[in-house]
Amino acid sequence: MITARSRFAWCVTGSGHYLDESIALAQRLPDLDLFLSDAAEEVLPIYGMKLEELRPRFAPGFRLVRDKTASAVPVGMLYDDVYHTVVIAPATSNTVAKCVVGISDTLPTNMFAQAGKLGIPGIVFACDTEPVVVTKSPHDWVTLRPRRLELDNVQRLREIDFCEVVTSPAELEAAIGRRLDALSLAWNTSSS
Ligand SMILES: Cc1cc2nc3c(=O)[nH]c(=O)nc-3n(C[C@H](O)[C@H](O)[C@H](O)COP(=O)(O)O)c2cc1C
User: Fold this and answer.
1) 109 close to ligand 1 (CB < 6 Angstrom)
2) Which of 31, 44, 61 has the alpha carbon at shortest distance from 188?
3) Is residue 190 assigned to a domain?
4) H or E element: which one contains 152?
5) Which of 63, 131, 137, 146 could form a disulfide with 150 if both were Cys (CB 3.0 to 4.6 A apart)?
6) Nearest-CA neighbor of 50 among 60, 62, 61, 64?
7) Rg (the chain; Cα; Å)
8) For residue 189, is it within any domain?
9) Do β-strands 133-136 and 122-126 pair in parallel, antiparallel, or remain unpaired?
């Protein structure tokens, strides 16, 4: 039995940048479900996280929700008051751009848009936020220079209602900590 708005909806997109750090934080949260974009499904195993091995890392009751419908059917769980918070971490440049212009054609972008329309707080960990980003490709470290376009999109995302933008693992942890405090909840003390 799920009580009203008692769970975190944590969306993962196809970003290798800060993927490990994001999943490590997610697994410290109580009552959390993961929502994957199709790209996340591909990228997670590339970084050593097979889908079938994710489940034991999360709290009991965990659900792994995959992007298998054109109309984002699982978003209905927001209308059923299952989730109190929607997190997108890590968020690709692609997902940030779609969120900024209101495109909802993946599970994470649909979760973001519908949560906003329902007044459910969202936290987005945008990764292309500095002029120079050093990121872990599957086999090496790569230096990327996000364009003005990507940097501007992050600024525009900050202006969207019910959306807090964070730009580092430390900021993500702090934002979630504040959300837990507001909900009188706590991080998991045991790691599964
Ligand atoms: C191994 C790998 C790593 C990737 N890492 C990133 C990344 O760090 N940031 C990013 O914006 N896109 C990254 N991409 C590209 C995205 O996965 C791609 O743009 C995809 O269309 C994003 O879809 P989504 O936003 O719906 O998840 C990566 C792709 C691959 C194959």
Assistant:
1) no
2) 31
3) no
4) helix 148-157
5) 146
6) 64
7) 16
8) no
9) unpaired
Q: What is the pLDDT of residues 72-84, one digit of tens each?
A: 999 999 999 999 9
CA contacts within 13 A on the Cβ side of 156: 14
111-159: pLDDT as tens digits: 999 999 999 999 999 988 888 888 888 888 989 888 999 999 999 999 9
Compute CA distances 182 → 9, 28, 175, 179, whole Å: 16, 17, 11, 5
Tell me the residue range of the domain where 141 lies. 7-183
Task: Give me ligand 1 centre to Cα 3, in Å.
Answer: 35
Picking from 103, 108, 116, the residue whose alpha carbon sits closest to that of residue 92 is 108
| Residue nearest atom 13 of ligand 1, based on CA coordinates | 15
Residue 107 belongs to a domain:
yes
Residue 22's identity, in one-letter code, is S
Q: Is 106 in the pocket of ligand 1 (CB under 6 A)?
A: yes
Q: What is the pLDDT of residue 83?
A: 98
Smallest CA-to-CA distance from 78 within 125, 33, 23 is with: 33
Number of domains in the chain: 1
In the reported structure, the alpha carbon of residue 149 is separated from the centroid of ligand 1 by a whole-number distance in angstroms of 16
Q: Tell me, what CATH number does 103's domain have? A: 3.40.50.1950
Residue owning tokens 């989730």: 83
Which pTM was predicted? 0.95
179: which 2 tokens?
């959300």
